[in-house]
TrEMBL record:
<protein>
    <submittedName>
        <fullName>Uncharacterized protein</fullName>
    </submittedName>
</protein>
Amino acid sequence: MIIALGGDNSNGEKDPFWLVPPNALDEQLFKAELTQVKIENLQILSFLTALSASFRINHPIELIHGNDPPDKFVRIDKREIGVELTEAAITDVRRDLAQARYLGRLLLNKLNENLTEYPHLDKKIVSLSVNQEQPAGQREKTVDDICELLKTDQGYVGENVDFSKGFPKVYPNSNGFYGSVDQISVQVHLKQQQQEPGIQVSSSTQTEIRLSQIDELLEERVNEKDKSCNEILIISCGLPDKKGYSCPLDTFMFGLIEEHLSNFCFSPSHLKLICLHNFQRNKVVELYRNKDFTDF
């Protein structure tokens, strides 16, 4: 479970925000790499599943590959509707998160290239807590230094702790705490699924999401896709990338938008329906609907 703290500006300006404590920024939803077409197919399937589950769409539905634009056509009762697909990710508004994700993936790649040097990390999670932005030219060296730090087996967090008598009054901070490199704290934990071999890397950082930033992002997406061939625009949060990874914090962005739907006002020239879609939760909310559009 991820918990965030919500608030507003102390000066009275209406710009709601959520402060999210350090949380894992990567979740691998698919082991295999995904093409753009596969991602779009997963996106439209999740969207239609969410609508069908809430009885908000007529059947039967036929999906037809589009001309890009639009990405897809949805045929309902012989009526073909142009559907354009796009994404809104938290890393679009918070670049520091993109950097933390990059460091985590770079570390995982380097560890996997030299697995024989890290037998003690098998079935473990290497946790990085990124406390400040790293200069682009320094990131490779930072990860190399973390790799060097991890070569010495220092156990894992909770090792040799007897929880049968309750949580210890003073938690031991020796095992599993590998120190820090360039303001990045390094810890090692056991995987929850102990039968799963290999090393996992989890990179986290604290972040703040503001509604004004999201509003700018959504306006940009709508303006890009507002074309005569597109009738429906689906903006998805939490989509997997081509490596199969999704950012769990995208769900927070969806939640902040959903909580403040009345703050958003779109006036497209061509689009008749704009939907926000939570891929990780199979949920859909409408951001805009033309009053004359009743075909979908």
